[in-house]
Design brief:
heterodimer, A: 191 residues, mainly alpha, 69% helix, globular, B: 388 residues, two-stranded antiparallel sheet, two-stranded antiparallel ribbon, elongated
């Protein structure tokens, strides 16, 4: 549900108020980047797609109608469309998938490599799920939205979200395996 | 395929271990529940994060794009070529051939059949105008939108669209004045129009307290109009005009409404001449008798920044009265008093102030009256003086 402050901010942004546009951008940019960062492996591509989302936000603002749905629902739809376009382009011009680029969080090189490998496995496993399942898991466990909020953002019922979440986690757990290593079921081999 | 009870049970377990709107992971032991383990692993991250430099870079791109995108809901002014302007003008000649239709549409209201014609004629006039002409036109159109809103309000209809269209024109005017296409008078007109906008919206809000959606829309327009008001005031004062001391919202509205009710008192007591002064910073509009039975005229002490209202003794029998410094009733350009729009339309512009308007006073001294009467105790909007 759109709160009054955000409704007022959107109204101002629609009239070209730069401060309002900047505020909307800053409030949502990291969440949208996290979503795209999990969906798309290459960091430069994730950066570009994130920029595209907000450029489209600015272009679409004059036509945006406040109908009570959360504003971020619109942003996530734009982001999902940009990700879908990205993969369509990839399928036309396939490139070798690069490993996820990771920031350095630990002191030792071995620690860095281990974290990087675990995260890479997790993200690779996540990307093997359907778009719908990825959306649900990212919104619920990365953005820590409630089931009701996830349902509102995706235009689904809470029951549907819970059922899809169950299936998504089952598949994710299978791909991760009991030792945490990714299993490529679709490719027919274990790593 | 998961069953509904299984899915619900899993959702409940996940809500306990990974509560929403929190980064915490609670009461979780790895290895006991593979599905929860997978969720916890995902929740723990680390998550992708955009570097500050890239955040700023993208922000610059977004704001640059925003400049190119037309923001108003009714983008009446676009970047058109000279050829396109003349093409629009030629089309308008054909439209304006139906003069009777255009004339009849001038007094139409939103929702009536000829209203689109009225708006089309306005768009045509804008397309043919230059920048300075556009400022004047847009200010006139703001007045019209407010008139339309008020007319509908009198009929018992609350339509927020005219207020929003008025805001579009006010914002456009503000940009033009900021760019130097408008004058100080235009900025002052904008101040007055925005105050009228706020008053009308607040009046309407009082009538729709059971309709939260419309009330919220009206509140948003009030907020926007407040912003326009402040910026227009800055423009009016920054160009050399003495700063008009207008109290902050909602005190202006209170004073404006108080002024309305006091004006009615003046009309009801013609035997006593009163002058209604400008609201002071505390928001009080003071009613001072300029002449009253048994009292002499009032004048100000120019050496003191605070205006002292001194009552000189009544003249003796044949003595002429001392010259009066206080202006005649209705002659002071009180902040918030909407200036009458130029009268070059077929439809007459309605006047808020029923009293005749003599030439404005040339007194340059700022008017700060004695704080005499307290502002109204009860604010007009529920929830306190500042609904926002």
């Amino acid at each position: 549900m759109l709160n009054k402050d955000e409704a007022r901010l959107i109204h101002q942004a629609q009239r070209g108020d730069r401060d309002a546009i900047a505020t909307l951008y800053r409030e949502h940019v990291q969440a949208i980047y996290r979503y795209i960062g999990y969906r798309v492996p290459e960091q430069p591509a994730a950066d570009d797609l994130t920029a595209e989302v907000f450029l489209r936000m600015v272009e679409g603002l004059p036509r945006y109608k406040q109908n009570g749905a959360p504003f971020e629902a619109w942003l996530y739809r734009i982001a999902a469309a940009r990700v879908a376009d990205y993969y369509r382009e990839q399928s036309r011009h396939p490139q070798e998938e690069l490993p996820d680029s990771m920031p350095d969080h630990t002191a030792s090189p071995e620690g860095v490599l281990q974290v990087a490998e675990e995260v890479s496995d997790l993200r690779a496993a996540l990307r093997q799920l359907s778009s719908e399942h990825q959306d649900i898991l990212l919104l619920r466990f990365v953005e820590r939205k409630s089931h009701a909020e996830v349902a509102a953002l995706l235009g689904k019922t809470v029951t549907a979200v819970k059922s899809a979440q169950h299936r998504a986690l089952t598949q994710l757990a299978e791909r991760l395996g009991s030792d945490g290593k990714i299993r490529h079921y679709l490719r027919g081999f274990d790593e | 395929m998961s069953s509904a009870p299984e899915a619900n049970e899993l959702a409940n377990r996940l809500d306990r271990v990974l509560p929403p709107h929190s980064q915490a992971v609670q009461d979780h032991t790895a290895g006991q529940d593979l599905l929860v383990d997978a969720a916890v692993r995902l929740a723990r991250g680390p998550h992708p994060a955009l570097a500050d430099g890239i955040v700023s870079r993208i922000e610059s791109q977004v704001l640059a794009r925003a400049v190119l995108v037309s923001a108003p809901r009714y983008p009446l002014r676009r970047r058109v070529t000279v050829v396109a302007r003349w093409a629009v003008a030629a089309c308008l000649v054909l439209v304006i051939v139906a003069v009777s239709t255009a004339t009849a549409s001038a007094s139409s209201l939103p929702g009536e059949r000829l209203y689109p014609v009225k708006r089309l004629v306005e768009q045509g006039r804008l397309a043919l105008s230059g920048d300075s002409g556009e400022v004047d036109l847009r200010l006139k159109f703001v007045g019209r939108r407010l008139d339309e809103f008020e007319a509908l309000l009198d009929q018992g209809t609350i339509d927020v669209d005219p207020l929003e269209d008025a805001l579009d024109d006010m914002h456009s005017t503000l940009r033009l004045v900021e760019a130097g296409a408008g004058s100080v008078d235009d900025a002052q007109r904008l101040v007055e129009l925005s105050e009228r906008h706020m008053l009308l919206a607040e009046t309407a809000r009082e009538r729709v307290q059971t309709d939260p959606a419309t009330s919220d829309q009206l509140l948003i327009t009030v907020s926007d109009a407040t912003e326009v008001h402040e910026k227009a005031q800055q423009l009016a004062s920054s160009r050399g005009e003495p700063h008009t001391m207008t109290p902050p919202i909602p005190e202006v509205i209170h004073s404006f409404k108080q002024r309305r009710s006091l004006e009615k008192d003046v009309e009801a007591a013609p035997e006593t001449r009163y002058t209604l002064t400008s609201p002071d910073p505390g928001g009080t509009a003071v009613l001072i008798p300029t002449e009253a039975p048994g009292l002499g005229p009032l004048h100000r002490d120019a050496s003191d920044p605070q205006i002292l209202v001194e009552v000189s003794p009544p003249p003796k029998n044949n003595e002429p009265r001392a010259p009066v410094d206080a202006p005649a009733p209705g002659s002071e350009p009180v902040p918030g008093d909407p200036a009458p729009a130029p009268d070059d339309d077929p439809a007459p512009d309605p006047e808020d102030d029923p009293t005749p308007k003599p030439p404005p006073s040339t007194d340059p001294a700022p008017r700060v009256p004695v704080d005499d009467d307290p502002p109204p105790a009860t604010p007009p909007t529920p929830g306190g003086n500042r609904p926002w």
